[in-house]
TrEMBL record, chain A:
Annotated source species: Symbiodinium necroappetens
Annotated membrane topology: Single-pass membrane protein
Protein's UniProt name: UDP-N-acetylglucosamine transferase subunit ALG14
Gene Ontology CC annotations of this record: UDP-N-acetylglucosamine transferase complex
Keywords assigned: Endoplasmic reticulum, Membrane, Transmembrane, Transmembrane helix
GO MF term (any one): N-acetylglucosaminyldiphosphodolichol N-acetylglucosaminyltransferase activity
A biological process from GO: dolichol-linked oligosaccharide biosynthetic process
From TrEMBL, chain B:
Keyword Endoplasmic reticulum: yes
The gene coding this protein: ALG13
GO biological process: dolichol-linked oligosaccharide biosynthetic process
Organism taxonomic ancestry: Eukaryota, Sar, Alveolata, Dinophyceae, Suessiales
Protein name: UDP-N-acetylglucosamine transferase subunit ALG13
InterPro entries registered for this protein in UniProt: Alg13-like (IPR039042), Glyco_trans_28_C (IPR007235)
The entry's keywords: Endoplasmic reticulum, Glycosyltransferase, Transferase
Keyword Endoplasmic reticulum attached: yes
Domain Glycosyl transferase family 28 C-terminal: 2-141
Length: 215, 166
């Protein structure tokens, strides 16, 4: 009897994972899945700000973004002291409400050893799981800093186990002209849309979309 | 003329513009002032001909950018795009000491499209100066965020989309 229950549980789980993978993973540009058609706006949107150049690029992308459609929350690395200041300097309207800014532990500082990286990554992932559970993002916009990996992993985990749909939009960094960054490669298959800044990349990767000059 | 290394440490570049050869060449090309933004480096440029001033960091380089007729910049995306947005003549200097140097990709792509001149490392700055001042420029196109907003709406499906994706 127990064996039957176990087998059924495994089969259900396997079916769910398989179903999720079929819906989530794509090598090519996918048709618009119309996930949020008819949903009440604004969509709960989550934006990961990296550091330095990544933050600058993301802020350019958020220019003129309709806050009545996408209500943005922001994730920062907790050792990143400049990104928030930069938002406050360039987009005071977004920085009005500091409750919308959430910091998570960095998964790896420059020069950190690999064993301690394992622990700090777990810590970062745990904190992301908590945050994503609370924020229930419908849209996740990331542009490639290392900080976004645990965030994406946590969001996809809840999509898998808690049936929370997610639109995942990845924007590659402008300095990538010929090859994808590590985060780009990791996010490529699971993203809904994948944006690059150079036509060379769009030619090489069928899913990547070049949208002209955005910065 | 403005030299900027952003928030990085790129003393090789600061040293390269702190030479008599550089000042001579710049004076010959008609420059009078040199402003150096040193970043995290420690080398301070001397007075060698051009009227030279320097500082480590400022919250914004807007003013310096607007008054410079030539910008010599490290190859960081932020600095490059800021200078091109201001429609400045630009010489991008790659720092080959940076780990897995993908700065080079962006600098090369911008140079290939005629938006700026490029030096593969700081020692080439003097040799590239004239080219940077006299080259035919292709203006960097203005950013158009419309396709990006369309893509977001498409990805989220918030409104009915009539156009085909792509």
């Amino acid at each position: 009897m127990l064996a039957v229950v176990l087998v059924c549980a495994w089969l259900t789980l396997a079916a769910r994972v398989l179903w999720w993978m079929l819906e989530r993973i794509s090598w090519d540009r996918t048709e618009n899945r119309r996930r949020w058609a008819g949903t009440r706006l604004p969509l709960r949107s989550l934006v990961v700000l990296g550091s330095g150049g990544h933050t600058m690029e993301m802020l350019s992308l958020l220019k003129d973004l309709d806050q009545d459609k996408y209500r943005c929350d922001f994730i920062l690395g907790d050792t990143d002291s400049t990104s928030l200041k930069k938002v406050q300097a360039t987009r005071p309207d977004l920085a009005e409400n500091l409750e919308r800014f959430h910091s998570i532990p960095r998964s790896r500082e420059v020069g950190q050893s690999w064993t301690s990286t394992l622990f700090s990554t777990m810590k970062a992932l745990a904190s992301c799981l908590g945050l994503i559970w609370k924020l229930r993002p419908q849209v996740l916009i990331v542009n490639g800093p290392g900080t976004c990996i645990p965030v994406v992993a946590a969001a996809l985990f809840f999509e898998l186990v808690a049936f929370r749909s997610l639109s995942l939009v990845f924007v590659e960094s402008v300095c990538r002209v010929k090859s994808l960054s590590m985060t780009g490669k990791l996010t490529y298959l699971v993203s809904d849309s994948f944006v690059v800044h150079w036509p060379e990349l769009a030619e090489r990767y069928p899913k990547a979309q070049y949208l002209g000059v955005l910065l | 003329m403005l030299v900027t290394v952003g928030t990085t440490c790129f003393d090789e570049l600061v040293r390269a513009v702190d030479t008599e050869a550089f000042h001579e060449k710049a004076l010959a090309l008609g420059f009078e002032r040199l402003v150096v933004q040193r970043g995290r480096g420690s080398h301070r440029p001397r007075q060698l001909g051009l009227k030279t001033e320097s500082f480590d960091l400022k919250p914004s380089l807007d003013e310096e950018l607007k008054s410079a007729s030539l910008v010599i910049s490290h190859a960081g995306a932020g600095s490059i795009i800021e200078a091109l947005r201001e429609r400045r003549r630009l010489l991008v200097v790659v720092n080959p000491l940076l780990m897995n140097n993908h700065q080079l990709e962006l600098a090369e792509a911008m140079q290939k499209r005629g938006h700026c001149a490029m030096a593969a490392d700081a020692s080439e700055v003097v040799a590239r100066l004239q080219e940077a001042v006299q080259m035919d420029l292709t203006a960097y196109p203005a950013a158009n965020l419309k396709p990006w907003h369309d893509l977001l709406e498409d990805a989220c499906g918030v409104v009915p989309v009539s156009r085909a994706p792509g």
